Amino acid sequence: MKLGNRLQLGVHVAPSSVLFGPHPTNLGDGRALSDRHTNYYRRRAAGGAGIIVVEEASVHPSDWPYERAPLASDCGPGWASIAEACSEFETLVLAGLGHSGGQGSSAYSQLPLWAPSHVPEVNSREVPKSMEPHEIEELLDCFVRSSVAAVAAGCHGVEINIGQSSLLRQFLSGLTNHRSDGAADGLALVTALLGRVRIAIPDSLLALRLCADELAPWAGIVPERGAEIAAALAEHADLITVVRGSIYSMTATRPDCHEPAGFNRSLAAHVAAAVRAVYPETRIALQGSVVDVAMAEEVLAAGEVDCVEMTRALIADASLVAKATAGEVDRVRPCLLCNQTCMVRDARNPIISCVVDPTTGFELLESEPGRSQDLVGLRVVVVGAGPGGMEAARCCALAGATVQLHESSSRVGGALASASVAAGRGRLNALVSWLEQELNDVGVEVLTSSNLVAADEVLRNADVIIVATGSRNGSPDYVVQAGAAVMWAREALEGANINGPVCIWDPIGGPIGISVAETIRSQGVDVTLVTPDNIAGNELSRSGDLAPANTRLQQVGAKILRRATLVERTHDTVVVTDRFSGASSEIEATTLIDAGHRLAEDSLFHELTSGEPGGSAAIVLRVGDAVAPRTAAEAMIEARRVVAAARGQIPVSDGVPMIGTVH
Ligand SMILES: Cc1cc2nc3c(=O)[nH]c(=O)nc-3n(C[C@H](O)[C@H](O)[C@H](O)COP(=O)(O)O)c2cc1C
Ligand code: SF4
């Protein structure tokens, strides 16, 4: 396995060629790094990460881009703790350093944003302050001081952000640097800075995260220029991680599954060629949705780059490198490229986690399920083989129980398998396939087309019953004329007969309505998506797919009716009203697909727990959509807790395990 190869970096050696890149986690304690950070990174080091770049710390207090964004002057103890925790595994720890400049936020600092010029920020629309020469000097001093502090704390070096959301890139770019003074030459400025950092930390690593394509060719850095910049800066750099994106393309740096995996390959190879021609010692890392071991092996074997950044892959499976090098590639829990819970900068301000591994970010509170004797001798029956039921069955089997998993349909995967049929969403099924294989390995008996009722013998004989029966269709809150048909999004994806024209009612604004619209429209059927919001897929801003989704809908020719409320379904139309004016209109629709909220399929749970003669003497738990239809993330979280719940170690409310496992 190439990715397990040790990598020489300056005078240091990384134990593997896999880099865990910097990303916001919200694990901080104020603006300091916390014990949760230490445990988060330690777990990845133990799993074989070669290089860890700690969450970026702002080098100057003028930069406070999100509430718990680390500040370098508060990070000394945290860096020391992380470096110490990872030293056991020889993982190289670099402190991520940066300043967001005009791409930051003044909401927390209550200070004007710093930027090369008064260019309004595209997303926040805020006009930054054009920096004075003395402020530029102060900024450079802070980069140097922070680098010295990180190394003094025990880090092997630093990674300086000249990529997305960075003031240094803003100095390099014609998009954002309109100055006429000495700082007009951004490359000279950054080169001088790196020279100073190099002198200040001579024996430590100096890595760069460098944008080589701002995706804004009219004034931004284009790949040719990106390669020139990389070659010029390589004199001072031990490692350059090549990224793309700028103010107009925030989400292009870390897109979801709609972008092909490894999208930066040709860009990174281009930069590598330019850098190697002048500084062959400088290593190049490929970034950009590298989530599969096979792709990492391919680029390393071809020598395109020297190492691979696999950040989301290691968020999803902290032990990816260890598993791959032990010949267990198939056991690597796959990243779905869903961006659902690993992106934390949204209005909910969540702590980082992962749909496929809820332990991520919660290492101090919950441990990954491992083999134990906790449920030895118990017969567990899980009803429903969606992700919740499959994960619950896996956890119980690992804990030594004898487990049967019953599924009423002819295949496993539940709603997630259905969702994966939609355009561009095939990767969702990777979780189902992984769970299926793991269930096989741990000896769970899976019975499909098995429709259990409360009185069944198999349930009567169980010690623990886990109800994971998922969801059922919701109930329309609009008038449905007698005899008029309503189809649900899941049915549409499960092969129901669809005749156009189609109207899709999307009161949620998440991925469901959008993906069904894309799927049906790409089959040539006339589609109108009706949304109550001002934009289709309103909630997709969280995963970064909002603008791309609207572009895709436009490209396939789907119509969008915004700010509309569905009031009535007739035989061949839908009646909608404008939410602002109240004006009513009618759309022709042979098929109406409701992509709205679903209801918990909880009848079996209530029968089993009714206390009536048909009730069960077993411990009855429930997880996932059978509790309340949400997403795969919540189903996986609840499933992880069933072992502790069955042992009475954690509270259970109405069948739902309430908190994490006890250490
Ligand atoms: C059409 C459709 C699309 C869905 N898309 C997603 C999705 O993109 N991500 C996700 O986490 N859950 C999605 N869900 C919800 C999950 O599939 C559901 O919460 C999960 O299967 C619950 O697990 P359980 O069936 O074991 O309870 C979707 C559901 C439907 C019906
Ligand atoms: S939340 Fe989704 S995209 Fe993020 S690491 Fe987990 S599986 Fe990958």
Layout of strands and helices, then pairs:
Blueprint: E1 7-9, E2 12-14, E3 18-20, H1 35-46, E4 51-58, H2 76-87, E5 92-98, H3 106-109, E6 114-115, E7 129-130, H4 133-152, E8 157-162, H5 167-172, H6 186-200, E9 205-213, H7 223-233, E10 239-244, H8 265-278, E11 283-286, H9 293-301, E12 307-309, H10 311-316, H11 320-325, E13 379-383, H12 387-398, E14 402-406, H13 414-419, H14 429-441, E15 445-447, H15 457-460, E16 464-467, E17 471-472, E18 479-480, E19 487-488, H16 489-493, E20 502-505, H17 511-521, E21 527-530, H18 546-556, E22 559-561, E23 564-569, E24 573-578, E25 584-588, E26 591-594, E27 599-600, H19 603-608, E28 619-622, H20 632-640, H21 642-646, E29 652-653, E30 656-657
Parallel strand pairs: 3-4, 3-12, 4-5, 5-8, 6-7, 8-9, 9-10, 10-11, 11-12, 13-14, 13-16, 14-15, 16-28, 18-23, 19-26, 20-21, 20-26, 21-22
Antiparallel strand pairs: 1-2, 17-27, 23-24, 24-25, 29-30
Helix pairs in contact: 1-2, 4-6, 7-8, 12-14, 12-20, 17-18
The structure holds flavin mononucleotide (FMN) and iron/sulfur cluster.
